[in-house]
Amino acid sequence: MLARCSGAALVGLEARAVSVEVDIAPGLPGLQVVGLADAAVQESRQRVRAAIRNSGLRMPLTRVVVNLAPADLRKEGPAFDLPIALAVLAASGQLDPKLLEGIWCAGELGLGGELRPVRGAVALALAAREALATALVLPAANQQEAALVDALPLRPATHLREVIQWLQQPEQAPAVPTSPEQPETSSQPLEALGDLAAVRGQVHGRRALEIAAAGGHHLLLVGPPGSGKTLLARCLPGLLPALSQSERLELTQLYSVAGLLPPQGGLLQQRPFRSPHHSCSSAALVGGGSQPRPGELALAHRGVLFLDELAEFRRDVLNQLRQPLEQGEVWLSRARQRLRFPCSVNLVAATNPCACGWAGDPERSCSCGTALQQRYWSRLSGPLLDRIDLQVVMRRLEGSTLGAGYRHCSAPEASGAVRERVETARGRMLARNPAGVNNSQLTANALRSCGAVQPSALDLWQQAIDQRGLSARAAERVLRVGRTIADLDGADQVSSAAIAEALSYRSFDQRRQGL
């Protein structure tokens, strides 16, 4: 006898429909799974057998073949346990096969029949709604996550017996509404990151951080140990505007596929802040694997990617950031598939000026020497630095500056006041720029049409290109930063002062040592 049940396989950020076909025929007892299934799916044979038996049902003592179609699509993970179990029960006559028509299922089975949560519930719900599924059956722990997708009937359950009872008596099961009004969750409170009120001195760095937040520009902070580089970087999420509803759903779907959503479910409300260690591999940073998963770069989408000790990262790992940083997306190609992960991030990188950390300090001498400094900076390629709009040299704080924080002096400006200016500047960008993009994402044509650069500012810009030998990419980034500075100042046109300030943030176009 043949029975079918619908499930889904995760492919990147999307879920693709998979038909679970079960055939029972005479032969030696056994359960065989075919259809390009990975080890986790193959192990479902043991979980399905035990779950059916311990739920008071009967496992067929004959030959059972499970086919996951389409056969050329790789299937992974334990989410196929539930559809396999239901299709086996339908094929063995313990469940009417017509009850499974139009139903999508996903869930991991415990040996006792319990339903455990799976990753990618948001992507699964979106695919089920697009396929006009009559209902989506999934573990109760995934209910709030899947409920973010409206207009899709949900049937959460905690046990295999509950699923069968609902299929046989659907009128007795209470309706489960779906609504975007779900509990708000966040990966990390902003208070745990940082507030600009705690940053003493570093006026140049604070201003660069505000420009980065307003225009979506990448930022590099170079300074000796203890100069406040990490503290400044951790303040950036608190300066960014709140996520829109579509951005929240997109971010929640991304974290759902990665299996990193908080247990309580609901929409992610805060922009992510990811800070990978400098020893991470390229797969951990950019993403990868035999079945590609999002890396730290994609997990920082719509938020901040902080690379501390930038010069300690492997050169080949850093060079893989070049194209994704410019395009806002990363493509992972494999022999059978090519997947896209979004990565529109604010990159903040921090590094010491040399291996010992004291190059350029007026009081402490550097023990590295020119050769060691050059070797230290050689890990940062010119094309990578070219893509970083704001490059700021930070100095060691003096005792008077630190002592002012413990005296009865006025506190530095807090993040809330800066965020108001950032939101005002972004409002100007959204109203002026094509497609409402940030200034950092303006194309060359859009920059020429809506940049509104004064002739005197263009003269200064051209002079700087010739004197500093700026590349075309670096030169355009200076104009984008100048446009952001003008937006922060409430100016319609980019003045010479804005271009001059933008040029002051290109510290490494001519030399990378001897700070």
The number of domains: 2
CATH superfamily of the largest domain: P-loop containing nucleotide triphosphate hydrolases
- Note the main sheet: 5 strands, parallel
Describe the global form. elongated
**Quaternary class:** single chain
Write the layout of secondary structure elements.
Layout: E1 2-11, E2 14-25, E3 30-34, H1 39-42, H2 44-54, E4 63-69, H3 81-91, E5 103-105, E6 108-109, E7 115-116, H4 121-130, E8 135-139, H5 143-146, E9 154-157, H6 160-168, H7 203-215, E10 219-222, H8 229-235, H9 245-258, E11 273-274, H10 282-286, E12 287-288, E13 293-294, H11 296-299, E14 304-307, H12 315-319, H13 322-327, E15 329-333, E16 338-342, E17 346-351, H14 370-377, H15 382-386, E18 390-393, H16 399-404, H17 415-432, H18 444-450, H19 455-468, H20 472-488, H21 496-503
Parallel strand pairs: 3-4, 5-8, 8-9, 10-17, 10-18, 11-14, 14-17
Antiparallel strand pairs: 1-2, 2-4, 6-7, 12-13, 15-16
What do you see in this structure?
With 515 residues, this protein is α/β, with parallel strands linked by helices. It folds into two domains: 2-172, Ribosomal Protein S5, domain 2 (2-Layer Sandwich), CATH 3.30.230; 190-430, P-loop containing nucleotide triphosphate hydrolases (Rossmann fold). Helices cover 36% and strands 16% of the residues. It has 21 helices and 18 strands. The strands form six sheets. It has a five-stranded parallel beta sheet. Strand 6 (108-109) and strand 7 (115-116) form a beta hairpin. Helix 2 crosses helix 3. The longest helix is centred in the last third of the chain and has 18 residues, at 415-432. It is elongated and about 85 Å long. The termini are far apart.
